[in-house]
Amino acid sequence: MDLFDLTGKVAVVTGGTRGIGLMMARGLLQAGAKVYLSSRKAEAGDAAVAELAEFGTAVSIPADLSTEAECVRLAEEVGRHEERVHVLVNNAGATWGEPLETFPESAWDKLLDLNLKSPFFLTRAFLPKLQAAATEGDPARIVNVGSIDGLHVNPMPTYSYAASKAGLHQLTRVLAKELGPRGITVNAVAPGPFESKMMAATLDAFGAEIAAKSPLGRIGRPDDMAGVVVYLSSRAGAYVTGAVIPVDGGIATTA
Asked: What GO molecular-function term can you cite, just one (predicted)?
């Protein structure tokens, strides 16, 4: 038995058209899964599907997941094509940095809506399809994408981002306890610095310094993120739930 084989499985990756979401989508495809991608912009979804075509079957469904209604619509759209969803990756997110004195209310509302409320509403919307996919010894999987900023204190003024990711880590634990008896595991991945649009400005300015602070001496690579999501989605990770796994080269240990 191949512990990491996902042949025949269906996965949904939100925010799957770029950055960490795209890395995860590629890994799931390479392991044999069919992957539905979601992002706000249809053209971004089309471009990602074209980029991923060499690895397997990817389908794009545009959605603005900052509202519960759109979370429900995404689940309904996927449900029109699939009887089961084996893996739900809640990755869609945003960040905001601004000094304490001027940090706006909108930065709290936007980030809590997308980074914390959206994973909850998506989990609830996809629950029937996830339960339908669960079998004895092979549970359905939910993977929430948190951040090491929810584990240690980032010197950058990203107040609502850090709080939303710490909240997502705790929500992961709560849902793991709730959904385990229903045959669903719930885990979180806490990425460190990876090359992505969200991190682009930071890495341009401080990339070498950040890499130097990592015990492994580098920033994350696409295979690092692909590997952890395949592990959590496959037979290899079937007995793991309620975990928050840093994928940061050890940066959180040096805070």
From this structure: oxidoreductase activity
CB 193 within 8 A of CB 202: yes
| DSSP at 182 | G
Q: Are the C-beta atoms of residues 65 and 38 closer than 8 Å to each other?
A: yes
What are 173's two structure tokens?
């634990």
Is 1 contained in some domain? no
Contact 187, 144 (CB under 8 A): yes
Residues with a known catalytic role: 161
211 located within any domain? yes
Domains of the chain: total: 1
The dihedral over CA atoms of 3, 25, 16, 124, expressed in degrees to the nearest 10, equals -30
DSSP secondary structure letter of residue 252: G
CB 99 within 8 A of CB 158: no
The residue whose two tokens read 């705790």 is: 170
> Quick check: is 98 in a domain?
yes
pLDDT in tens, 183-212: 999 999 999 988 876 666 777 777 777 778
CB of 23 closer than 8 Å to CB of 51: no
Whichever domain contains 154, its CATH number is: 3.40.50.720
Asked if 238 and 6 count as a contact pair (C-beta separation under 8 A), the reply is no
Task: Give tens-digit pLDDT for 83-137.
Answer: 999 999 999 999 899 999 999 999 999 999 999 999 999 999 999 999 999 999 9
Q: What is the mean pLDDT of the chain?
A: 94
| In a domain? residue 55 | yes
CA dist 93 and 161 (Å) reads 9
Structure tokens, 99: 């000094």
Instruction: Give the helix/strand (H/E) hosting 12.
Output: strand 10-14
pTM for the whole thing? 0.94
